[in-house]
Amino acid sequence: MSTKVMAMSAASVGAKLEATLIERREPRAHDIVIDIAFAGICHSDIHQVREEWGPAIFPMVPGHEIAGTVSAVGAGVSRFGQGTGWVSGASSTLVASAPVAGRARSSTA
Fold it and tell me: Is the peptide bond before 59 cis (omega within 30 degrees of 0)?
């Protein structure tokens, strides 16, 4: 059974991002499900949407910089558990050991 979620996606090369209902497959044994609270788009996502680094698959949901909470793990996952805070950045993935708390603040405030 799949899950439908809202996402911002580009339908084709260079297209503007638009709200889209997408269908996610069911999590597998080694998957981690993350409830995303915040997401960011960086220059590498823009290059991908413009196909400046080679052919891409569309429609595309860009964005790999996220913060959220692990809401479920597959049967084969032992390192992370439900409620673990999750922050993913530009060049590596960092996982907090405690649930995400507090509010995000803009660096341009």
Answer: yes
